[in-house]
């Protein structure tokens, strides 16, 4: 050891006292902190145990209530299913009653008028629906593309549903009944009927077991001349699957009658009085025309120029010889009947109701009126919709 070693030892011994004091205070501080942490941990453990006990108690209280609620939910579901079944049966019964008690013929007829003493004579009573309102709307499903047609045969004895998808097609779907059509895999339930010529537009009609539709006459592409802008009406027997008659529609320069439905050139319709055709020509490209057709021969019995404009028209239907034209906007909004034309002149436009349709998805590609059921079958941007109609007749003694 050198001469400086004792001095170093003495220096370290002189500083050991203050260091020991600081260490002692540090140890006490750490002990206090640890004791506080232990106390907090103990409190947290007590609170956790208390909360766990409260949660167990709450669970034990709620389990019976949940069981009761589940039983009540099942009971409500069963009751709702029962009510839904009753409503479906009621709707079918109402439809059956309406079918068994169809609307009276919309014709003018003479009848004897008897009043008080000394009052005898004859009067003519005009029966027309002057109040046509859309009572309800039911969206059934979505099938096919944005344009098409679905309908029933108003003269048929079955509940078959006919679906014609697209504006240029040659295959129709036939469903045994409406319930089969509404199924998720509806196409599997359908039979297919192929026609020999593709139809044009969405103006087809099923009437009396026949499919009536328009087609382009043979040789039209590039032919020009008399066949330019003309269409041929086809009468197709659905059971035999044969063409039984055809006729060139007696109007030249055909244009789409509806400004918002550019693919349809002749829109066929049926009502209580028979078969009709809605069309337009270049001779008067601003208004619709109406024609009464013979369903047996396809001959045109009479034609009328109507005051109903083509602009913003999207579809039309005929009730008791009165044409009702439906208008909309582009883009589609809420449709409304804005023009009516009575071929007999009995119902004036001032008396005819002009109702709105319920709010819906898009634009009507087709509307088919069923006089037996008093409802419209609508194709709305791929959705198949049923509109229930309410009609009131006003009788006038002339």
What do these coordinates show?
With 398 residues, the protein is of the alpha+beta class. It is 25% helix and 38% strand. It is built from two helices and 21 strands. It has helices at 5-100, 178-181; strands at 108-114, 120-142, 148-151, 161-165, 171-175, 191-194, 205-207, 210-215, 232-237, 242-248, 254-255, 267-271, 274-281, 284-293, 300-309, 313-319, 322-327, 336-342, 364-370, 375-380, 383-397. The strands form five sheets. The protein has a five-stranded antiparallel β-sheet with strand order 1-2-21-20-19, with no helix packed on it. A hairpin with a 6-residue loop joins strand 14 and strand 15. Mean pLDDT is 82; it is low at 107-126 and 221-227.
Gyration radius over CA? 40 Å
Beta content comes to 35-45%
Main sheet overview: 5 strands, antiparallel
Q: Please tally the β strands and state the result.
A: 21
State the strand order across the main sheet: 1-2-21-20-19
Structure, briefly:
25% of the residues lie in helices and 38% in strands.
Produce the secondary structure layout.
Layout: H1 5-100, E1 108-114, E2 120-142, E3 148-151, E4 161-165, E5 171-175, H2 178-181, E6 191-194, E7 205-207, E8 210-215, E9 232-237, E10 242-248, E11 254-255, E12 267-271, E13 274-281, E14 284-293, E15 300-309, E16 313-319, E17 322-327, E18 336-342, E19 364-370, E20 375-380, E21 383-397
Antiparallel strand pairs: 1-2, 2-21, 3-4, 4-5, 5-6, 7-8, 8-9, 9-10, 11-13, 12-13, 13-14, 14-15, 16-17, 17-18, 19-20, 20-21
